[in-house]
Amino acid sequence: MAGRDLRAVFGSNDHQVGAEETFTNREDQWRVFVSALDAHLRHVTAPGFDAADVEAPRRNLLVFHGVGGIGKSTLSRRLEAALTNTERRPAQWGEPAWHGPRIVPVRLDLARSANTDFERVIVTIRLAVAAAVGRPMPAFDIALRRYWDHQHPGEPLEEYLRRDGLLTRFGQALPQQMQAALGEVAQSLALPGMLGSAVGQLTGALVRALREHRRSVSALAGCARLADLLEADTDLEALSYYPHLLAWELARLPARKQIAPVVLLDTFEDIGDRTHRDMERLLQHVVWLMPNVFFVVTGRNRLQWADPALHGQLDWTGPAAWPGLAYHGFPGPRAASADPGGRRQILIGNFSDEDRQNYLTHRLATDGQPLIDPTLRRVIAERSHGLPLYLDLAAMRFLEIRRTGRTPQPADFDVDFPALIARTLADLIPDERHVLRSVSLLDAFDIPLATASAGISRDAPVLRLLERPFIRHTPTGLWPYHLHALFRSTLRTAEDTTDDRWSPRDWRNAAERAHLAIGRQWAEHTGPGRRLLVACLRQGLTLASEFHLDLGWLTEAAWQYISDSVWEPLTPALRDTGDEAHLQTTADALVELLNTLGRRQHEHRRTTANRLAAVIDAALLPEDLGQMALYYLAKAHRDLGHSAASRTGMQQVAEGGGRLAPAARRGLAHLARLAGDFPTALTVAETLGWAGRQNRVLGDIHWPQGDITRAADDYARARDDAEQHGIAGERATAQAHRTLALAFADPTTAESEIALAQHLLTDLTLHATTLTVHIAVLICICEAGRSTDIDARAQALHTEIETAGLTSLLPLLELAVCFHHAVRGDEGLLAAATHRLRLLTNDGDHAYLADIACFMGDRPITPDAWPVRWLESEETVRRRWRTLVSERRGT
After folding, report:
1. What is the pTM of this model?
2. Is residue 471 part of a domain?
3. Does any domain span residue 878?
4. Cα separation, 552 vs 545, whole angstroms
5. Which of 153, 328, 625, 762 is 20 to 30 Å from the Cα of 788, by its Cα?
6. Mean pLDDT value across the chain
């Protein structure tokens, strides 16, 4: 079921191109409609239903709302077509199982371009009933004829219907029925030959007869409010109450004539705005006063009729009056579905990927074959974010490019359509448009953030904007609102031709306001705030980088970010390489610095070092943040085994006396330890304090001495210190090192410590620390006489370590293999593993591990070995390690 798309027909000279209006999916909306209409039919046909009851709650209304271009009008037209002719119902919708009166649909487009006024609404509904029933509706017809003669003197209703095309659509039934109704009433009042020109006399006589309860008008006496309406002024206010008369007439139709009208009101947003509700108020009268008629509203915004605050603007308000329209929590989550007794406000969602592909497949075709190739369809579908309007605009762009003789390419659709801006902003008042552009700068926002970003002193425009369907709501989000991705992209990148478009200066001013507001939220937050910190950094860094803003609060936030050693990803990479030419501002450099630190857990340390070097060479960061880059570059060099470069960097940071000076002194202690100079490392470590992670450094110094108990205690104190200071990353790292030390001495205890380490690493991205735990697990399974898969495990870990560029861990892994062979007493394999370890440490770093391997097997140290300065005598250290091996053997 598809109609011709005339825009596409006139968009190409190629008559082989088939251009069809494509209707895709919407099965969910059809099911909701069927369920709601079925509930309505059962209600109006149940014993005790009274169409004249003006107090009972109303459930005769279903609302589909969504962003411009989502397919609301198409859905409305398809519903009308499906109800008019079952053969035109989409196959995927299935067969409804309605029982009861014949359904009579009538669709009214309220768009400004359709020029549908309230009189046309009333007349059209009556025309549809006239065509379906084929008999007069005297109470309504007389009131309508009286109104028309007063409001349109000299213009017969028949002439209006003919000129407006309504007679062509519905036929001559209404004029004939109306004349018959006048004749019947005139005859009952003994006013034979009464003409239309004397309707005033007829209605006067009818009112008197009704007031006097004459038997001659008993047929109309049951309409208790008819006399009041005929005595009222003939204005639009009175006309809006006449539907009550039509509902009464429908209710008294004989069973064989009974019908169930379904009125579809499309483009509801065009009847006014949230301040001027005159037309909306009149239409609400129609819906309320016709409880036996089912109404389907389609528009961009949800109806607020269930909001008690509108009392006085509208005549029937509140959740008791409209239980199906109640908004559950303001502003709250949108309803995704409805049931017969549940919600009747349905947000129309985007197309699924499958539906996008289906739409593009059938939208343009040649000889029955899709004109748009599969690759291009995938690109357009992804770019659309499921918005049908975008798909339609893309199809028109496809034809436009094709007219030039060029084959459209995927790059041709890496664009935004300005038409989306116009459609989005069309029904927003100026304040709402201002807020919308402001929040388009943000990934997510809450009400205070949106208000501050817009630079306004009141929340009202924000609250109104939140009701719009292009604002998504995530109740569990830190900032619960975000703008539909496609609309946000379009507002930010497409050419804006609207009258109130923003200049570059306007955008930058809004970015500054948003940046400051985000910083205030972070600074004013109390309690644990890692989640908020990262969220603020993500949005703040993006704004500062794009609009070349001063760092401001970002400097302190950056230091807070690195202090926890958690390393969540912050922003997408600015580039694929560390080329400083791409860094133009201080904000760019900070983005790249923090982004690199976060990504270093997922990439080779060589890449990390290159990126950090590029940041330093760009010389854009202030001195303190420059020290941050230099320190982590020195750490990367250490992980890569470049001790000389690491030592130079750590020395510069330590001498700078900045925030990372204690950490740099710790780095120097580590480097002394790696070189086998344990006394120097110990001397430095004892001066570090908590800021330099003194206890963890002491543990790193003591376990190579074979003093496992002391090292484990050092690590436990380091872990407890980190917990006291709330530093999750350091706590996990200290615990991981504790498990490593205990794995050599007590595998049973180590297993419980490993479980704790793994728990502490949950939700943290610390690659080196995680690998340390894996090595501890490897050491735990070293047992004499037990055949294990330790070699395979060791090889897998070796590959993972090399992939990450954490080459400083390879000697430790090889030591674990040496320990295994020593425990099993396999002299040949131990000698081979010790030789590999000696090769790994032939530059002097970690050379003491090769000596420890010799101690484990009670083998002599080769004369060409690097000298090691132990804290105690070499013999003492040898005895401790040999004892650890013997105890593991059980000998």
Report:
1. 0.61
2. yes
3. yes
4. 12
5. 762
6. 84
